[in-house]
């Protein structure tokens, strides 16, 4: 299995732990991720001009060289998907293609890494790779941009793929009403108060459900819920101690990999308790 | 024997009076005020019929009117006609009326038949082709009536006992109303009487206390000498026939003998697991019960009971009862709201209206206090209407559940009454207050300060602190909104209670496509069903309030009493007659109802056990069995006459599927006018003789449509179809079988259209081929 890989800015920056776990796990699963050369930022949610934003992702899509284009980040994935839809307007597509060296033919399929694991690789096959069933409770947190506004692999409002992945790894996904609700990440810089309030609700609900950790699929969600967890705790005077784990790290732990190999030492919220509970 | 030879011993046992040449057959066609007359050229039909001098043909505007009936009556009384064919609306409506009139006029009612040219013709076809269809059908009816015997219905003694299924307010009412005159057995699957009404606090619009008005009735049932009350009981099986059923009941164990228990409570005090309990203080029967899933089998209760009433070894038991009538009062339950995923039900403080009100009722587990999960009073309550009702997304029900608009107001009023400064909001699509005193109630609710928001609730998100965020659209303000509530009450769609379909199938009662019991006639016969000894009342017939359930209970009781009061049930006399018998016993083996036996080497029929299904007809190797008034020759004569006008598709149809065809007519669902229905008591009376004849007389295709849900018949339909297909292969014309329940009228019309066009196309190809062949022959 081979894919074109678009890491997004975070993988080489704040989300090095995510990158490390992706490389470790995907290598062992035999899935080849060919990073596209000279990629550009997708613009996340911070570029206001619509055409510029679409152009940024069009260039990325055009670089896929005939393979499916995977990405580990919810924002990048959402931008790529929405760009494909926007480019159905051929006038817009032609206008943007004029400005690109590599023209885009409209046929690249963006896929999130979660989709690659759950749909392409398959959970039955993944279950066979499990050496250490994770007897913990995990929150399946998809974030607001993975399944909405559009995706091709799961229900927008009540997705189940991450829940199923957690089950396949031997862990128990808890019932979580905020699966697809915003963590506050995108407005962290512009409205920190509101961002922290949103995170507070998510973390309180996670704690209340008896979960041992929250599983995320996006570096921004991870940043918000992990790096900013202390800020939420101080502001509201609550203790969470809720480890935030990338789904690839979860897979790695279940496959018997060492937490260090998966970048877990880089988290701000300590994961030692969770690792001990897993038995690693 | 070929089709042209008459079977030996053709004369039936009863003498058919020789036709007096002075007497004719009267054919009366109804314009039905234009319903028929505007589509069918009745004059042309009449003219075509008048060629036959043995007929008197008359057209009326409204045959059912006194003027119309008077004409027929006078023709009979004056000796002008001794057989009557009526072309009008469905026999379901007026057959009994006309036959009653004929009987009074001195004619055997059997000698009057109705041909359906409205629900099954003028309402479902346009003018093209309809005249030849109607001419054919009437000619067929005339051919049939010419050979009909003046049979008299058989009489069977009724068992004077009624089974009322369901102990809610409808069942209780029905039972009490019948019991003064007839024995009643009332069964209820819960351990106590009262149904949903027991879970109510106050009842709209008068705000009566529910238990106060219900418990006296429950006690009356318990005390009535003529009512046998059996709780934790359900119907397991039904054997027998209308008016004389043997019903097997299944009794779930209570582990406490209700006749011995004095409700002293000693057992509950000793029980370490809280497994033995009194359902609630006013429960009837007033006895403790055990929840076996909690029981530790320690036996403490057994030891301490002063009356020796506890039996931990109790098992499920069965018993049989003999009844003449059954009243279905099985009520409702609510839709499983987890299908509406965006409401996130169940979650803390997110309840159904039923759970909400139970807290305030006699069944309360909170001391009749309204409280949140943490025990405190909810200061802000939202009521969400139409949760699963009026839902066209495919997850809920399309219909309106009728009572929620009013009961949500009642519940909102109760919240305000319990705490004056609490807030109650109602999210609605429409506020339906149709009914006496309901609009005033609505006005009163608004005066109490309940907030109304017109808009469907889009999403309900439970928050970590137990509150709920409701996202909605306020269509009056044109805004989207979001509010936090302490408690959200969902008003769920009401659906027929579990087991309704199984019970209905066992009794030959049909269900509508909404799943509720289908009444015999929606407007004119609302508590009877297609089974003359089965009746229905209450929410089993559709969501309704207590007033309407009681009204139906009283009506059903009256109908039951009327039915039982006759003492006898009239059984249709169209039963098999054994004309020739070689004593092989094949029919005895084939009969699913054990109605045939061998006596002195000859087959003998028990007419009262016989259901007229006709399986014996095709089982007889010497073709010695015929169904009275549905003999092979009679059917063939009818087919020949129907097809004499023009080729068409012959569709044999049983009474249940016939009802579906009528419903299609009421809904004006159009289908091909090539379809000609031939009513038979059951499709199993048909054999290759008759079907081959249909093809020979010009049918381009033949269909068998069966609507009964009686498994004894439907289980052999496949075999019947395969045999007929094999034996009619030589005609190379399409033969089809389909099972269509009464509710499936759309499936029926789709099927008819497809088959008619298939048969037509095949016939066309064949005729073109034949023309081609004859042209070739001519050239040579």
What does this structure look like?
- The relative contact order of chain A is 0.15.
- Chain A is 44% helix and 10% strand.
- Chain A is built from eleven helices and eight strands.
- Chain A has two domains: 2-112, Glutathione S-transferase Yfyf (Class Pi), Chain A, domain 2, CATH 1.20.1050.140; 123-278, 3-Layer(aba) Sandwich (Rossmann fold), CATH 3.40.50.
- Chain A is globular, with a radius of gyration of 18 Å.
- By secondary structure, chain A is an alpha/beta fold.
- The model of chain A has no long low-confidence stretch (mean pLDDT 93).
- The longest helix of chain A is centred in the last third of the chain and has 17 residues, at 192-208.
- A four-stranded parallel sheet of chain A has the order 2-1-3-4. A four-stranded parallel sheet of chain A has the order 6-5-7-8, with helices on both faces.
- Chain B is an alpha/beta fold and 780 residues long.
- Chain B contains 22 helices and 36 strands.
- In chain B, strands 10-7-6-16-27 form a five-stranded parallel sheet.
- In chain B, helix 3 (91-104) links the parallel strand 3 (81-88) and strand 4.
- The model of chain B is unreliable at 1-16 (pLDDT under 50).
Chain-wise SSE layout:
The complex is a heterodimer of chains A (280) and B (780).
Chain A (H helix, E strand, L loop, with lengths): L1 E4 L10 H14 L2 E4 L14 H13 L6 E3 L2 H13 L3 H9 L11 E3 H16 L8 E4 L20 H8 L3 E2 L18 H17 L4 E4 L2 H9 L1 H8 L7 E3 H8 L17 H7 L2
Chain B lengths: L23 E7 L11 H9 L4 E6 L5 H12 L3 E8 L2 H14 L7 E5 L1 H5 L7 H17 L7 E4 L3 E5 L3 H11 L3 E6 L13 E2 L4 E2 H14 L3 E5 L1 E9 L2 E8 L14 H5 L5 E2 L11 E2 L9 H5 L12 E7 L1 E4 L3 E3 L15 E3 H6 L21 E8 L16 H15 L4 E6 L9 H10 L3 E4 L2 E6 L5 E7 L4 E7 L1 E6 L1 E3 L3 H8 L26 E3 L9 H20 L2 E4 L4 E3 L7 H5 L5 E4 L2 E4 L9 H5 L5 E3 L4 H14 L2 E6 L1 H12 L8 E5 L8 H10 L1 E8 L4 H4 L2 H11 L7 E5 L5 H35 L1
Parallel strand pairs in B: 1-2, 1-3, 3-4, 6-7, 6-16, 7-10, 16-27, 18-25, 19-20, 19-25, 20-21, 33-34, 33-35, 35-36
Antiparallel strand pairs in B: 5-28, 8-9, 11-12, 12-15, 13-14, 17-26, 22-23, 23-24, 29-32, 30-31
């Amino acid at each position: 299995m081979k894919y074109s890989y678009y890491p997004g800015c975070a993988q080489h920056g704040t989300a090095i732990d995510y990158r490390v776990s992706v490389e470790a796990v995907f290598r062992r699963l035999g899935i080849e991720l060919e990073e596209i050369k000279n990629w550009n930022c997708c613009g996340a949610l911070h570029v206001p001009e619509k055409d510029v934003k679409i152009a940024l992702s069009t260039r990325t899509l055009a670089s896929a060289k005939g393979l499916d284009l995977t990405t580990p980040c919810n924002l990048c994935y959402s931008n790529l998907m929405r760009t494909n839809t926007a480019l159905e307007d051929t006038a817009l597509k032609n206008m943007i293609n004029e400005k690109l060296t590599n023209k885009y033919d409209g046929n690249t399929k963006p896929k999130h890494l979660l989709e690659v694991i759950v749909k392409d690789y398959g959970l039955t096959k993944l279950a066979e790779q499990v050496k250490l069933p994770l007897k913990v409770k995990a929150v399946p947190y998809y974030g607001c941009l993975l399944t909405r506004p559009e995706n091709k692999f799961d229900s927008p409002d009540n997705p189940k793929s991450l829940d199923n992945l957690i089950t396949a790894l031997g862990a128990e996904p808890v019932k979580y009403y905020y699966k697809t609700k915003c963590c506050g990440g995108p407005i962290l810089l512009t409205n920190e108060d509101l961002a922290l309030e949103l995170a507070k609700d998510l973390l309180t609900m996670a704690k209340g459900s008896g979960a041992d950790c929250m599983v995320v699929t996006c570096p921004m969600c991870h940043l918000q819920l992990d790096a900013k967890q202390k800020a939420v705790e101080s502001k509201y005077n609550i203790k969470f101690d809720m480890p935030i784990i990338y789904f690839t790290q979860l897979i790695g732990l279940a496959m018997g990999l060492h937490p260090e190999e998966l970048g877990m030492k880089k988290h701000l919220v300590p994961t030692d308790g969770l690792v001990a509970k897993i038995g690693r | 024997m070929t089709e042209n030879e008459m079977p030996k011993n053709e004369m039936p046992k009863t003498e058919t009076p020789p036709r007096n040449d002075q007497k004719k057959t009267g054919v009366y066609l109804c314009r039905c005020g234009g319903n028929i007359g505007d589509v069918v050229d009745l004059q042309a039909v009449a003219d075509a019929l008048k060629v036959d001098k043995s007929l008197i043909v008359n057209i009326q505007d409204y045959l059912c009117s006194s003027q119309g009936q008077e004409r027929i009556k006078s023709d009979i009384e004056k000796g002008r006609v001794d057989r009557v064919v009526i072309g009008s609306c469905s026999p379901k409506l007026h057959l009994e009326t006309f036959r009653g009139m004929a009987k009074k006029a001195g004619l055997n009612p059997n000698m009057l038949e109705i041909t359906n040219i409205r629900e099954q013709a003028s309402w479902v076809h346009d003018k093209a082709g309809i005249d030849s269809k109607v001419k054919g059908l009437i000619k067929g009816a005339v051919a049939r009536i010419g050979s009909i015997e003046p049979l008299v219905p058989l009489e069977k003694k009724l068992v004077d006992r009624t089974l009322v299924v369901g102990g809610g307010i409808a069942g209780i009412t029905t039972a009490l109303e019948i019991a003064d005159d007839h024995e009643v057995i009332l069964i209820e699957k819960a351990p106590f009487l009262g149904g949903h009404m027991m879970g109510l606090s106050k009842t709209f619009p008068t705000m009566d206390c529910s238990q106060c008005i219900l418990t006296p009735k429950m006690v009356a049932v318990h005390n009535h000498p003529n009512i046998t009350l059996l709780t934790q009981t359900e119907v397991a099986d039904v054997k027998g026939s209308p008016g004389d059923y043997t019903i097997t009941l299944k009794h779930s164990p209570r582990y406490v003998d209700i006749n011995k228990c004095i409700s002293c409570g000693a057992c509950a005090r000793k029980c370490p697991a809280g497994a033995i309990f009194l359902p609630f203080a006013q429960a009837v029967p007033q006895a403790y019960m055990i929840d076996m899933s909690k029981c530790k089998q320690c036996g403490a209760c057994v030891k301490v009971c002063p009356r020796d009433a506890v039996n931990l070894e109790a098992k499920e038991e069965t018993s049989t009862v003999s009844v003449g009538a059954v009243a279905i009062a099985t009520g409702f339950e609510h839709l499983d709201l987890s299908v509406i995923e965006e409401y996130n039900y169940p979650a803390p403080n997110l309840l159904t209206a039923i759970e909400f009100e139970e807290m305030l009722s006699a069944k309360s587990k909170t001391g009749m206090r309204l409280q949140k999960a943490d025990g405190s009073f909810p200061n802000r309550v939202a009521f969400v209407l139409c949760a699963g009702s009026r839902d066209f997304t495919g997850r809920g029900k399309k219909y309106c559940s009728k009572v929620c608009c009013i009961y949500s107001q009642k519940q909102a009023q109760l919240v305000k009454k319990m705490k004056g400064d609490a807030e109650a909001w109602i999210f609605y699509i429409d506020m339906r207050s149709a009914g006496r005193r309901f609009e005033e109630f609505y006005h009163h609710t608004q005066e109490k300060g309940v907030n109304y928001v017109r808009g469907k609730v889009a999403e309900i998100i439970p928050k970590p602190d137990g509150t709920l965020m409701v996202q909605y659209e306020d269509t009056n303000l044109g805004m989207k909104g979001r509010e936090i509530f302490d408690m959200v009450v969902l008003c769920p769609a009401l659906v027929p209670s579990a087991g309704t379909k199984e019970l209905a199938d066992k009794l030959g009662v049909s269900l509508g496509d909404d799943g509720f019991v289908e009444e015999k006639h929606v407007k004119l016969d609302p508590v009877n069903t297609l089974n003359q000894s089965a009746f229905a009342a209450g929410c089993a017939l559709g969501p309704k309030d207590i007033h309407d359930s009681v009204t139906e209970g009283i009506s059903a009781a009256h109908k039951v009493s009327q039915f039982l009061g006759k003492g006898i049930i009239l059984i249709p006399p169209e039963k098999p007659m054994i004309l020739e018998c070689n004593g092989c016993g094949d029919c005895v083996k084939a009969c699913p109802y054990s109605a045939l036996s061998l006596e002195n080497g000859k087959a003998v029929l028990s007419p009262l056990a016989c259901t007229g299904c006709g399986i014996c007809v095709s089982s007889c190797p010497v073709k010695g069995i015929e169904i009275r008034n549905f003999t092979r020759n009679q059917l063939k004569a009818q087919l020949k006459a129907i097809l004499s006008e023009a080729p068409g598709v012959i569709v044999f149809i049983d009474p249940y599927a016939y009802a579906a065809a009528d419903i299609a007519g009421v809904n004006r669902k159009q289908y091909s006018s090539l379809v000609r229905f031939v009513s038979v008591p059951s499709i199993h009376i048909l054999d290759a003789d008759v079907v081959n004849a249909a093809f020979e007389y010009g049918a381009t295709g033949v269909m068998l449509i069966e609507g009964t849900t009686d498994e004894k018949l439907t289980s052999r339909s496949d075999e019947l179809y395969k045999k007929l297909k094999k034996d009619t292969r030589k005609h190379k014309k399409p033969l089809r079988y389909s099972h269509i329940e009464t509710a499936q009228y759309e499936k029926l019309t789709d099927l008819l259209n497809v088959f008619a066009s298939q048969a037509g196309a095949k016939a066309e190809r064949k005729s073109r081929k034949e023309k081609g062949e004859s042209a070739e022959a001519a050239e040579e």
